[in-house]
Amino acid sequence: MFDTRHLGVPKDNIGIFLRDQAAAGDTVLDMDPGPQGDGQDLEGLEVIDTSTAQKINSPDAIALSELKSQVMQNPKALAALQGHLDSLVGQRSGYIESLPKVVKRRIKALKNYQVKHTQLEAKFYEEVHSLECKYAKLYDGLYDKRREVVNGVVEPTDSDCEWESSDDEEEEEEDEDMEEGKKEVNALAGELKGKAKVTDGEEEESPPGIPGFWMTIFKNVDILGEMVQDHDEPILSHLNDIRVKFHEGPQMGFTLEFFFTANDYFTNTVLNKSYQMKAEPDESDPFSFEGPEIIGSQGCEIDWKKNKNVTVKVIKKKQKHKGRGTTRLVTKTVQTDSFFNFFNPPKAPEEEVDGEIEEDEETEALLSADFEIGHLIRERIIPRAVLYFTGEAIEDDEYEEEAEEDDQEGEEGDEEDDNDPDFEPGKDGQKPPECNQQ
């Protein structure tokens, strides 16, 4: 049941409300209840004029109590009132407009303070970017070591490999169980176990580095995995590193670099993608500022080898001449899905129409996805690559998403409790939470 208090109409006084509306000359609703629970919408709802409404208040009309009962039981009337309530959502209450001029003057001062706060916030983000540039150079040494190990250039030292994990503990327990089992089995079983057991450096396959490192990461991350097509995988098997370079100077931004070994598809050894960012408030709308945002991106030209471009496909179509009846074969090149379209992003519109930049929905969606992917690679994939390879970072991200959803559900539940007139926190053994003084 909806609550008419949002209209300033107490539920118990709905009849008086309708009577006053009629007396004021406003249009009211015919309160014919119709079949109960028929689930009908507003179609067929009869609207009566003021003269008819006046009859409702005549001595011969039904009592107000009966009218009130009909209103609360009529699904059409309830739907109409609920629709009116919905139309009020997001509308200003008029409170600010009703304030005295002297108070409005003070509000203007607060807004000016807010603009200055936003300007300071922009300077804060500029300094954060400077710190990112500084620490990026410190990270490079670690990224160099990671690249060398992944690609089998060097073998990590024993001290580098000291790492205890739950998997290692399980393997140690299994080894202990096997040792105890050896004492209980006969010599033949022990010999078979000895052959089955793989020892370090004996008959164990030893591929260089960590095979499929970046490809596995791409497949583990949904948004990247969706971009990778079957025809992309042979090329991505040659991807041996991804790096980020921050732009120093007045123009904030960063460049993603994808390094490839020699392959049969293109001659480039590095494919790059640059992102431009803005960290200052918009003069026309300073209160919308929420920190740095990506405003554009630029890819690079891929030097594809002959007939190896996986971003396009050739369609062959037969055309028949209407008069002579002869046919000819026509070829047409069209773009196809591929991860490597990432290096050819859509251009952000620059032309203004009526003072505003027009942007179609499809382009806007593509740009938004492109910016999201660039930010993800910079902020998550590159710094935590090994955790996305093992899947641990994926689990952490899922836990974070679940926690956010739980928080939202909790807030919605609290709102429902607050709107429930019968809700009393102190009843049924529910104790209000105590404030813990720190």
Automatic annotation (TrEMBL):
The keyword Nucleus is annotated on this UniProt entry: yes
Biological classification of the source: Eukaryota, Metazoa, Echinodermata, Eleutherozoa, Echinozoa
Species this chain originates from: Strongylocentrotus purpuratus
Main subcellular localisation: nucleus
Location within or outside the cell: Nucleus
Name of the protein this chain belongs to: Nucleosome assembly protein 1-like 1
InterPro entries: NAP-like_sf, NAP_family
Gene Ontology CC entries for this record: chromatin; nucleus
Annotated Acidic residues bias: 157-179, 393-423
Region listing for Disordered, in residue ranges: 154-211, 393-438
Pfam families found in the cross-reference section: NAP
GO annotation, biological process: nucleosome assembly
Keywords, sorted A to Z: Nucleus
A molecular function (GO) term: histone binding
Family: Belongs to the nucleosome assembly protein (NAP) family.
The UniProt record lists the keyword Nucleus: yes
